[in-house]
Amino acid sequence: MSPDFWQDSGRAQDVMRLLAETRKTVERWREMEQKVIDITELISLVPDGEESSLDTEIRQEMDAIESRLDQMEFELAFGGEYDNRNAILSIHAGAGGVESQDWAEMLVRMYLRWAERKKYKAEVLDISPGEEAGIKNVILEISSEYAFGYLKSEHGVHRLVRLSPFDSDHARHTSFALVEVMPEAGEEVDINISSDDLKVETFRSSGPGGQNMQKTSSAVRITHIPSGTVVSCQSERSQFQNKDSAMKILLSRLLNQELAKKEEERAKLKGKRIVAGWSNQIRSYVLHPYKMVKDHRTDYQVGDAESVLSGDLDGFINAYLRAGLGDEDD
Fold this sequence. Notes:
Radius of gyration: 24 Å
Helix content: 40-55%
């Protein structure tokens, strides 16, 4: 109600976003409160000591309430400022050519199937296909409440051991891919960018997509001049769509850089801390000579590697969050 509230638009938008998030939280708990009131009234209708047709309905309702409360309790692990945001995933094939590029594509499929299982919206913002097979790198957007809170556990190097389908001798190969996870940034809320700080260029796409992509300058490259951060997008036929995707990726990268700076400052106080990157392997997927997927941070492991590669990631994500490792990243 302050008359000068909107004079500082950045702070005002931060407050309005916090207000919207708080309202959503209150609404969820009010909804649970009403469910408890309803089930209490339903129980009161059942005569003492007598069986009723309502018994089954009451049990189902109580099980649903218990399940929802467990989920809401688990969500308390999402204490980070950006945990309730959408997630931007970047997957980069490591050294090793077609082997690592195929592994990167397997990871893309794994995360898309995980999103499908969770009924989350998943979209490919940009992709660079490999020359023979697989992909060199890809950027995905996973949209849902707490998508970043869940997927931040995936940030780091993923290692695959298998018999190579591309080797005529069927020798065993080890491949690596880097997964980067960033929270989606809100324009003019998390990052303030002046148009003077941006250099926008268009060029003809060099990737697959038919003659339209080759003949028109639909690809977009955006450079943030102060930081030197460059983002390009060419997966869509429309220049407008590519620019929109590139801007979304740029904002998330700049936000991630700000978070990294804060983390470095905390690291100086806490002592040296290993940062997820090419030097830090977080998970191994072994398909030969035995089958196992193991997370090296939590020691959580399963023998059904095929299910994991088909999107069954919740066990690894939950183990990471319950171990409190996510708190170190926020």
